[in-house]
Amino acid sequence: MNNRKAIYILLSVIVLILAASIYRNHARVDTTLRFGVFTGSAWKVPNPTVYRLYDGLIADFRALHPEYYITYKSGIRVQDYSEQLAQDLLKGTEPDIYLILPEDFTTLASLGALSALDSLIENNFIDPGLFYENALTAGKMGNHQFALPFEIVPSLMFVNTTLLEKLQLEVPDFSWNWNDFYSYASQATKDENQDGIPESYGVENWSWLDAAYTNNELLFDAKGISALLNQEGVVDAINFYLQIADLTRNVVIPDFESGKVLFSPFTYSSYRTYKYYPYSIQRFGNFKWRALTMPKGPKGQNAGELKVLLVGVSKKSIKKVGVQEFLKHISTSDEAAYRILEYSQGLPAKKNILLSDRAKNIFEHHISGSEDPLDGKLLDTIIKESIVVPRFKKYNAALELASRYIEVEQVQSYSSLKNFLNKLNKTLDDYLKE
Amino acid sequence: MRRFFITTISIGIIFISLIMGYIFLFRNIPEGEKDKRRVFGATYMNMVNPFFTVVDDGIREIIEAQGDKLISFDPGNDQLKQLDQIQELINMHVDAIFLNPVDWQQVKPGLLSAKKARIPVINIDTPVYDIDLVDCLVMSDNVQAGKLLAEDLLQRKSSARIAIIDHLSAKSALDRVKGFSSIISEKNTYKIVARFSSDGNIEQALLGMENILKLRTQVDVAFATNDPSAMGVLAALEAVQLTGKVLVYGVDGAPYAKRMILEGKMTATVAQSPVEIGRTAAEMTYQLLKGKEIKRTILVPVFLIKAENVQQYGINGWQ
To answer: What is the gyration radius of the CA atoms in chain A, in angstroms?
Structure first.
């Protein structure tokens, strides 16, 4: 063998080794899916078991699909998550599949960052009938499904039962209505020594939005083109909201934690966190309290807003098959739903899970005191009757504008509430069409 | 033959030059070099404990006032995740890392990686074992915290059966127990009848205290090495209607602990100042980056909060 031949052989071997190593790395990269997650809870409550949730979801998936590897960047706090995701999108380094906070969905969908999931539904790869119908709409923009519901939290009304007993009032029924609510709130707002500062208050933090949603009314159409504030049901809701607000006009209401307030709306996640040991000791610990449904308006149900944490797929992801399998697993499998129920502070968006015996056991785990937990059947009904607010690009700004008018403007200076809301509706319409 | 070798060598040189050029042109330019803003990283044992959120706020306040940026991570009490986060911060070429270790010994590989990358590490709240690998340590006087609680106990009871709720992977907690034990060990009427590690978290403290109560161990005093653990103890006591019948001590001075003291459910807590710890850590880091000589260890003073003085500090915030 001459030298030239030897060099050719050597070079060929090097090229082959390089090619094999590149192929191996490439193959590994192709089966590694990046999952975008955050620590803590999307619902402003502590969640010490969030990694158990993510690691459990991944372990279950890998048991079924060992050919895939799932990685996630740990430690991103929920308050930093949107910014981190935005930066990753700018750099083109976003995860293949990621959780989407309710306030980020519209921006991500309208930017074209999310892959449309319509074909997965049309091909029966994902059955839309598995989800609560309203929760599924949270991931829809226009006619396209861009994300699936991962975790949901309905609205509840907390009642201070210590104060209720002191006022010699019975616990309201789960089917209570606005009239009942007003009656309780007015009886609780007491200024017995007449110093202008009540000793107890009816309600704190109950907004005009709660009034509208419990009257089954939306404030804007689904596309975000027109406002609906002049609809009869919304006028009734705002009228009722103003009646409740009049009970404590010009008075600063202390928060529910003070023990001086009879009612306050909270999400299910606050109930889940603070009704159970050990966190029950940390908040609302100096009085007895329980959770009720929201009081319903004449056109509405005993349910308010349903908040939805979504999961979506990056449009740029080239690992479509694996990502779709993982998406299907975490959003539609029973195992994932039970993990969400056990290790998050929210509820799974998959129907029928809450009605199972396994869910009942999870609900009863760590129950504090002698009171029964809200049962799965009641929560199931509340979820089904809740409102999912359609999000669009100008949603936050339009809502802020409306709130400012309703809460700060002197409605009384108009000849009627209807006139006031007609004018406000026009202002909002103009803004939405700009 | 000679021509062949010259050609091969020339091709090799061109190839290497192209690779070098590529690396030079397309290497990752650190954030700081791009816009001259400094970027700092932080990782705390967990941010479910609001104490660390407040430390983070203190650091952030100083850093953002300089127009710089802080990236904070929460490893959820998992040392492996914290090591990943340290590596992530190193890869981001941060200017310094604020570190509150999950495990004071097992964090060492992260410290070595930061050292290798020449990134300063500012150790906060609880020391690392390999203290030479960090540039500065800012923490409360933990031994003194334990002593203050023991002295309070001596004034309340002439004898006691004590449960210690420890945190074995945190040196700060070990020092608090050391300070506490140094006072009570002088008297033979105070007995430690139970001891377990809650890892500083409320859930494990609840489970541990429940076990003690199930075993019917007689306990008059629970000394928890932080306030979340004291809350776990209080939850266990409340479940069996023993609230107020066992003296419960904690360390932190958290708003919820102060409220418990005001309501008579908790005996006392030693107040730390997480805002001050955070601010001091950030200020020291800037001094260090300016090349100034700084103290290796800075102890932030602590003080006792009990029913008699709790109103003075208010229950709505940290001190």
So the answer is: 26
What are the tens digits of pLDDT across the range B217-260?
A: 899 999 999 999 999 999 999 889 999 999 999 999 999 999 99
User: What is the CATH topology of the domain spanning A29-153+307-384?
Assistant: D-Maltodextrin-Binding Protein; domain 2 (3.40.190)
CA-nearest of A328, A325, A356 to A342 is A356
Instruction: Determine whether B11 is exposed, middle or buried from the number of CB atoms within 10 Å of its CB (0-12, 13-18, 19+).
Output: exposed
Say which of A48, A74, A280 has its CB closest to residue B201.
Answer: A48
ipTM above 0.85, yes or no: no
* d(C-alpha B48, C-alpha B198), whole Å: 14
Q: Which whole-number Å values give the CA distances from B297 to B132, B139, B171, B234, B284, in the listed order?
A: 11, 8, 14, 34, 10
- Tell me which H or E stretch contains B126: none
Per-residue pLDDT tens for B164-186? 999 999 999 999 999 999 999 99
Nearest CA distance, B76 vs chain A (angstrom): 7
CATH superfamily to which B31-139+274-299 belongs? Response regulator (3.40.50.2300)
- Whether the CB of A280 is below 8 Å from some CB of chain B: the reply is yes
Strand locations in chain B (E): 39-43, 69-73, 96-99, 121-124, 136-140, 160-166, 190-197, 221-224, 247-252, 268-271, 297-300, 303-306
Domains B31-139+274-299 and B142-272+306-313 equal at CATH topology level: yes
CA angle A21–A26–A29, rounded 5-degree value: 130
B264: nearest CA in chain A? A286
Q: Tell me if residue B149 falls in helix, strand or coil.
A: helix
Residue B78 and residue A80: Cβ atoms within 8 Å? Answer: no
Tokens of B137: 């340590």
Q: How far apart are the C-alpha atoms of A116 and A145, rounded to whole Å?
A: 6
DSSP, res B132 = G
Could you tell me the pTM of the whole model?
A: 0.84
With CB atoms and an 8 Å threshold, state whether B202 touches A279.
yes
A156-305+389-433 and A29-153+307-384 share a CATH fold: yes
B247 neighbors B157 (Cβ within 8 angstroms): yes
Residue B149, both tokens: 């609680």
The SS3 call for residue B219 is: coil
In 10 A of CB B250, how many CB atoms? 30
Q: Distance (Å) from the C-alpha of residue B277 to the closest C-alpha of chain A?
A: 21
Q: Is 3.40.50.2300 the CATH classification of the domain at B142-272+306-313?
A: yes
CATH 3.50.80.10 fits A156-305+389-433, yes or no: no
Domain boundary assignment for chain A: 29-153+307-384, 156-305+389-433
A134 close to A386: Cβ distance less than 8 angstroms: yes
